[in-house]
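Re: that chain you flagged

S.,

Sorry for the slow reply, it's been a week of failed gels. I finally had a moment to sit down with the sequence you sent. For the record, here it is as I used it:
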Amino acid sequence: MPARFSPNGFLDVAADPSDLPAEVAGKVVTSGAMVRCTNLHLDRMGIASTRRGSQKVSATQLSTPIWRIAEMGGVRYEFAGAIIYRNETSIATGMTSARWSAVKYNAYNVATQAIFALNGTNRKRVEGSSVYEWGIAAPSAAPTMAGQGAGYAYTHDWEKSLGHAPGNSFKFGTTRNGYTCTYDWEQAEASGDSETYRHMWFFEQASSYKTTSRIGVKYTYLRKSGTTIECESNPSSPAYVEANTMVYATWVASSDSQVTHVRLYRTLEGGATFYYSNEYAVGDLSGACTKADTSLGAEVATDHDRPPLGTAVIGPDFGGYLFIAKDNLLYFCKPNQPEYWPALYYIEVSPPQDPIKSLALINGQVYALTQSEVYLVQGTGYQSFFPLRQAAKTGTRGVDGALGIKGQGVLHVASDGLWGFSGIDDDNLTNSNFRPIFQGTARGSIPAATSSNMANCWLLQHKGKLYFGWPDSTATYPTDLIVTDMATKRPVHYEYGKALSAVCVDETNDRILAGDSDGYVWILEDASIATDGGTAITYDWESMEASDQVRRYFPRYAKYDVEVGSAATCAGQVILDDAVKQSHTLTGSRNTKKRHVTHCNGNRLRSRVTGTGTVSLYAAEVE
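Prediction finished late last night. Pasting the structure tokens below so you have them in one place:
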């Protein structure tokens, strides 16, 4: 009885090979089901071809492990060990070595996109070749106040001086002609003009100004781009002076390199609300509150808190919010302002003993996943967000173990494989085809998974395929992939011979980037090459098992419809009752001549094609 096999069905290692589907027409058994399909893709119906190759993006080896790779504007940012890299060049050191989570975003008033990343201990904003703190911390010290004595009001005077060297100009606290100088700066005019302008503030006696009320002053740190304030910290603690003195403040310089300016805020006489008065370069270290009461600006903001030290970040949603998971709490920023995280902008999602592991975003809605539950965060903004526990059977293990896919739902990795939550049903997507793998049993060319390291699994969507990486029993990080065509739902098995700890989609170049356990960054699924860094790709295909409980098989010959690349190796095997009865070397392009099989018989018949290099398998037949 002839048996014809082709790769147009499904890979299934959970069922017994003889229980996989087949059709019998007359005396011919036909089936497309497979028990092996390793390093072969099924992009063309009825053809199994060697998967696309991979190559290192550079020869530079990074610290390990590579926790996160992010791409922005065609530039790679790698978070590896305790270092942050830009295109494999270190740009920041001294980080905590822990798994990072990151998003790309920019505030409504910021033209340049940045990467916002955190790992539970560090929170950073990465822009270009620079790494800054995420948000600006409030000043740690109150301003130091100075006055020039009771009974004095102030006026100002400009002086244009060519004969005075800069060091001879009036300085703060000096007196001249009975006046005390309280503020001074120098400004160079246009290039080539040697004139120097000095703007000096003086006091003159004015007894009508004297009062016993106090004026309070606070200051903030700013980051400005041109005239635009991109980020401002919360204010310092206040300091006070008598209102009958000149309001002059000295501040502490910030150790944060992103801070460019300082703003002074003061109260009215005897007041408690702080209003904007003046702005200075942070390096000035001191300055006066020169604006009159009627010219003061807006009240100082007190909701510019930095983000929490969380472990997962996602967003933005449709409202412009970013979300951060820390323990069992979910925090969110001010809409379209990723550096402002008001202290009360959070909700409690789960019990403290079941902290949030990962976040997923789909259709503008956020899902928070613990190890045992999936929660939908409903609402449209502050005071309306609330968690709603879903009817999911399980949650996820790690920060990269959840992914929202439009039309599919929330995919999430548990200890027993990959699950898919549609909003109504939660199904184990790997249970029907790969159950033994996630129960600790190897099948064919697919090794068993390690339950204890499932927290390191990751999910990725690219070009209509879902990539699910998981570690085998010998590895900490994913060594094997189940790659599923999202249109046909047909899965295959990939292995790259290395542990891949982090992956991302390089959107600019439309490719997949991955970091391995040795510290190298790779391009995966590279159609321009047919090897893995110069090493030929090993492939393996095996059909289901044709079985006839009444009659035995007496195979006489085998035929293989295989296109073998010029540098490839290929062998076709006839398997009876789990034993290889004949192996045939295959070469050339679709040479379907009969291959002799020595006398043998058995109850269960399979075909297998294996080798290295570039091949395309169409069919195999044993008769």
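What I noticed first: The radius of gyration is 34 Å.

Talk soon,
D.
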